[in-house]
Design a protein that fits this description.
elongated; mainly alpha
Length: about 90
């Protein structure tokens, strides 16, 4: 009588070995890059301070943004938008 082996098949064992090898290689690459001072992510510049146009306060900018949202959603007509925008800008 032929007795079957319990456990993964030859193909299953090969896939497991390939997966372990990939993990080990990836870890080795990451460690090597860390030691060398490299990173997978490109260098990101420091976030700049948000710039507002000269003469506009943060509150005025917020009002303009809200006004633009109301206009784009169709709540304000073009005429109402222009009137309110002129009022905010002075």
């Amino acid at each position: 009588m032929i007795r079957r082996r319990s456990g993964p098949s030859l193909l299953g064992r090969a896939a497991g070995t390939a997966a372990r090898t990939a993990v080990i290689a990836g870890t080795a690459t990451a460690v090597s890059n860390k030691v060398a001072g490299r990173s997978n992510q490109p260098a990101q510049p420091a976030p700049a301070e948000p710039q507002t146009p000269a003469g506009l306060s943060g509150e005025a900018m917020n009002q303009l943004k809200q006004l633009a949202e109301l206009h784009s959603s169709g709540i304000l007509t073009d005429e109402e938008f222009a009137t309110q925008k002129a009022r905010i800008l002075g």
